[in-house]
Amino acid sequence: MAESPTVQPEAGTWLESWLRACAELDRLQAGNPLLDAVIDEVDGRRIRVGDRWLHDFASCNYLGLDREVIEGIPAYLDRWGTHPGWSRMLGSPVLYEQIEAELRELLGVEDALLLPTLTHIHAAVIPVLADGGTVLLDARAHKTIHDGAVIARARGATLERCAHDDPDDLERLLRQHPRGPRLICTDGINSMTGNPPRLAELAALARAYDAILYVDDGHGFGVVGERSREELCPYGRRGNGVVRHLGERYDNVVLTAGFSKAYSSLLAFIACPSPVKRLLKITAPPYLYSGPSPIASLASTLLGLQVNASRGDELRAMLYGKTQRVLDHLEKLGAATLNTSSFPIIEVPLADADDLDLVGATLFERGIYATLAFYPGVPRHEVGFRLQLTAANTNDQVDALLVVLDELADREVLRTGP
Questions:
Q1: For residue 4, is pLDDT > 50?
Q2: How far apart are CA 122 and CA 116, in angstroms?
Q3: Domain with 195 in it
Q4: Measuring CA to CA, which of 50, 207, 308, 337 is 20 to 30 A from 292?
Q5: DSSP bridge partners of 7
Q6: pTM of the model
Q7: What is the DSSP letter of 335?
């Protein structure tokens, strides 16, 4: 049988332009085993890719709840089926209201609205809140926040980027752009550095200039929470997010986050005043038209919230201990990391960005699965790899990771210094 011809983009076409713009990622996906992998089997925090088993330090399943809640899911499936057939505009299983009530109590907010993903939320909510006003976008905000801001601009809003976590630059732009409504968009716990923002200063500016501070805490919710004398580790208690962790209040602050990380569920939320929730229920396409989350995800969220209430702080203490082991080891090696918070996202930059292929292949060969931090996803001087610790990673797996970090340090491919 004749082989199918390979389709090559014609010079000057839109396809060639896109491939040229994404050439580095396209090349990495084609040749590096840490990208675009097919996972054949999962066993705890071990994964099998082809015939090779690896310790998984790329998962964001921070609390490691999936095995713990799985036995409770079938009862929900028996009652509700696998997937509700209605858009939320038409009808929602009462599970949604139960989760939203739990969120109101956990976060200490006036109201909350559940939608399938944070990507849905940013694309739908940022344009509504910005209206024809001004979006002030942190330079390191997550790509999905950026995309939501671009949609807002297409609908008439002004879009300005401000220096990362820089209240002075933000205030300069607030003075330059008086047209409201004004929406300040930033990450909570940053998805690459693992560090929190200067939230108190950003929130104070939002209140002083009658703006809304829009925070994506996808990596903080479930991990960091309110501080108290009874806390078991510096992550705080209850996992109720970066706003409570940093002792802030919700005046002029809208919090978004998801359950896809700490709770391993396809579900996300926006915590906001009740009038804003009512507005979104008649304006947000994911509420009006999108398919809802599967019943198993709603069930795993409710079951996970029960585990969080009973022993979530113990899981977070375990997570902190494992994360701190890795950070302490990197410090002993003299290796740089962007993490200054001890939260469980550790990006390790390379001395030379051109070594990314070599380092990725080495990690894979040594049985470590990690997240590659490639340019232009990160600035060139931050190219390296990201490690995410979870409560389900074993101490033996952390031991194996430290041995591989020793090898990379001996080969002088890790960037040194603070």
A1: no
A2: 11
A3: 68-308
A4: 308
A5: none
A6: 0.92
A7: B
